[in-house]
Design goal:
The chain is α+β, with helices and mostly antiparallel strands and about 170 residues long. The protein has five helices and three strands. It has two domains: about 55 residues; about 70 residues, Histidine-containing Protein, Chain: A. The protein has a three-stranded mixed β-sheet.
Amino acid sequence: MCRMENTNVTRTRKREQVKLPVASGMTFLSGILIGSLVMYLLDPRQGVRRRALARDRARSISYRTATRIGKAYRHLSNRLFGTFAEISDTLRPEGAVSDRKLAARVRTTIGRSIRRPHKVDIAVHDGMVTLRGDLKPHEAGQLVVAIESVPGVIGVDNQIITAQQIMPQ
């Protein structure tokens, strides 16, 4: 073995077997896969159909992904908004609800409590809710109980006329 010291690298004259690194094998396989894909898609007989199927699948995946991302964004946004509202509500002193906001809360409760919410008129003044209209007796009782549980309601003035009051027995 003869060594040459002209450079920093030691070289030998003996023949060495060259081993291919793993990366070149992967490059070879990648080339085969890409070639097969191109051949598959550019086939003169069925290539048009295959490309259309691939395009449709890609569009479908894109649409579903965008839809899911949109849903996740809206969900996160709503959760953050709700958390912020709860925190700000705990920092606000009790009874500091405007009459307009309280009226909206009461209307929502009316809509959830009885079958015909359009038959009830409300008026709110400084947390005191006045109810007017005509309802069945059991609906009137349910409604008063539901409205008393609305945050910010100080009291309920029930002026609802029931069917029993209209028709004397």
